């Protein structure tokens, strides 16, 4: 497979003029910063050891739990808020309202606290107590909607709140271009830098579609020949043309196809059952020391299957969206 290895110090993305500066990335982690938001991104990648399989490709995992509030959604939350500020849609004291499965809400709550905004987070009532407690700790107001109504119900409630609260703003992560944009200009560039451009497959779950879309599009530009796999819950195979349904892979399978999702960016859809995802999630904690959430287990389960298919000498990278600490009350460990 042909690869393009960027400069070890910095390189330019051929779209939107973004630049990955290795020195600046390191500086943010080793020097005093002025805001917690400066520590978003530049998350580490670890190579699986004890879960690695003989005669299979090596499997790498990008640990998004190293973001300040503990998930990949810090990236999108920050970018959506910054873009709203640039457009004059947010002013000191403004209220941000967002329907979310939890992680985006936590990212928004953290960013809002750091930048002087109020936050109202709307979620289905099956969210774990940990997520609700974290949101409240950041000062956010939490509004719960019936799980039977799914994410569509949460969105409808958020829209109503926006209409009722003067000057409030919905970031609308499912259709906000700032969501995938942050992955085009940060996540993907980090991956190319960390792998030195040597990567054969990229695997990620799809919730809003931001990560798989933004990261996938840029990886295709920078690593010719790469294969991209999107993961969805077997119990809610909407991307595959099936019906929405209940599942335990929190943050994936919203029950509809989001506007920001580029359905042409991936080569294959991998369906993962709750049992398989949770089984690998537990194995990651007990055999690799990686305490991650159910969607991470799903991505790595799929990544291991891809690694078996590709064989030795190849390399697969899986996105691990968040920490497992948010799921301890689910009794899945």
Automatic annotation (TrEMBL):
It holds the Pfam family PALP. The modification N6-(pyridoxal phosphate)lysine is found at residue 73. InterPro entries: Cys_synth, Cys_Synth/Cystath_Beta-Synth, CysK, P-phosphate_BS, TrpB-like_PALP, TrpB-like_PALP_sf. Pyridoxal 5'-phosphate binds at residues 103, 207-211, 295. One of its GO terms (biological process) is cysteine biosynthetic process from serine. It comes from the Bacteria. Its cofactor is pyridoxal 5'-phosphate. Signal peptide: none annotated. Keywords: Amino-acid biosynthesis, Cysteine biosynthesis, Pyridoxal phosphate, Transferase. Its EC number is 2.5.1.47. It catalyses: O-acetyl-L-serine + hydrogen sulfide = L-cysteine + acetate. Pathway: Amino-acid biosynthesis; L-cysteine biosynthesis; L-cysteine from L-serine: step 2/2. Belongs to the cysteine synthase/cystathionine beta-synthase family. NCBIfam families: cysK, cysKM. This is Cysteine synthase. The gene is cysK.
């Amino acid at each position: 497979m042909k690869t393009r290895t960027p400069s070890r110090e910095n390189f330019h993305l051929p779209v939107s003029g973004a630049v990955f500066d290795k020195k600046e990335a390191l500086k943010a982690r080793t020097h005093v910063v002025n805001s917690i938001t400066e520590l978003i991104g530049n998350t580490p990648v670890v190579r699986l050891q004890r879960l690695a399989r003989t005669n299979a490709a090596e499997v790498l995992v990008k640990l998004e739990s190293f973001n300040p509030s503990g998930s990949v959604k810090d990236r999108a939350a920050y970018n959506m808020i910054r873009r709203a500020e640039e457009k004059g849609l947010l002013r000191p004291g403004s209220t941000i309202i967002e329907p979310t499965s939890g992680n985006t809400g936590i990212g928004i709550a953290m960013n809002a606290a750091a930048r002087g905004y109020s936050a109202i987070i709307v979620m289905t009532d099956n969210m774990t107590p940990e997520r609700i407690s974290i949101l409240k700790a950041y000062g956010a107001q939490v509004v719960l909607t019936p799980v039977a109504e799914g994410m569509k119900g949460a969105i409808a409630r958020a829209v109503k709140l926006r209409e009722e609260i003067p000057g409030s703003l919905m970031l609308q992560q499912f259709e906000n271009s700032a969501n995938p944009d942050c992955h085009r200009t940060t996540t993907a560039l980090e991956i190319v830098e960390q792998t030195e451009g040597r990567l054969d497959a990229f695997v990620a779950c799809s919730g809003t579609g931001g990560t798989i879309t933004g990261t996938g599009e840029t990886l295709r530009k920078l690593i010719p020949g790469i294969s991209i796999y999107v993961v969805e819950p077997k119990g809610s195979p909407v991307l595959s043309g099936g019906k929405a349904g209940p599942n335990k892979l929190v943050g994936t399978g919203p029950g509809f196809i989001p506007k920001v999702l580029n359905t042409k960016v991936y080569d294959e859809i991998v369906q993962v059952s709750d049992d398989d995802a949770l089984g690998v999630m537990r194995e990651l904690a007990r055999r690799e020391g990686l305490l991650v959430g159910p969607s991470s287990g799903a991505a790595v389960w799929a990544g291991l299957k891809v690694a078996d298919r590709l064989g030795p000498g190849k390399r697969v990278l899986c996105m691990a969206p968040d920490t497992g600490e948010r799921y301890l009350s689910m009794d899945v460990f």
